[in-house]
Amino acid sequence: MDKVVRKPADAVADVPDGASLAVGGFGLNGIPETLIRALHALGVTGLQVVSNNCGVDDRGLGILLAAGRISRVTGSYVGENKEFARQYLSGELEVELVPQGTLAERLRAGGCGIPAFYTPAGVGTQVADGGLPWRYAADGTVALPSPAKETREYDGRPHVLERGITTDFALVRAWRGDRHGNLVFRRAAANFNPLAAMAGRTTIAEVEELVEPGALDPDQVHLPGVFVQRVVPLTPAQAADKQIEKRTVRA
């Protein structure tokens, strides 16, 4: 039951080229920065990433993106990453853009063993009808459009069928965690982390504070250890290394 792996490099050592990854975080909030850097040092490539966004140019998943290690992204927000936009528009990167709530539910569904579900989100748009550019050609034309999805009417309202998402690995960050993998997330840093953790077949969690089993109030646990295979305790310096995309202060 002791799932602690002391070194981040050891925790990601078996991630192969071409692996699919669900990665927690929203912008730079709650991102598994230490595990991402360990994955970058490992040198794996061809990664298929599922995450709300892809970090910024020099932080988070943006590090892997800039190094050419990511081949496909499923997400809902391009955000502040100029390199992400450049690779997508030049045809170097395949991108599946998904409504944010749909992305969250696809991850949750995959983690719960639900293969697909119907939702009204996206009906009447290219999300349902197909034609969204998944990959561009070098000349700017659409090389790979998204396919049309099945739709069905419920209670007089059309719904589109969306597939649940499961991935080979998941990388997440938690505020506190015990040796059994039970995790607690802090405030907005929860964001996509619990959902990404559920979707991964092998989930690796970096935790800011490692506690002993029994120290966490069961009623306060946000993600039970059944979803987590490895726990990496961060050093104080790693836990404190948090960035803000855009800092706004009063004059």
TrEMBL record:
Protein's UniProt keywords contain Transferase: yes
Keywords: Transferase
Top-level taxon in the UniProt lineage: Bacteria
Molecular-function annotations in GO: transferase activity
Gene3D superfamilies associated with the record: Glutaconate Coenzyme A-transferase (3.40.1080.10)
The family this protein is said to belong to: Belongs to the 3-oxoacid CoA-transferase subunit A family.
PANTHER family: ACETATE COA-TRANSFERASE SUBUNIT ALPHA, KETOACID-COENZYME A TRANSFERASE
Protein name, per record: CoA transferase subunit A
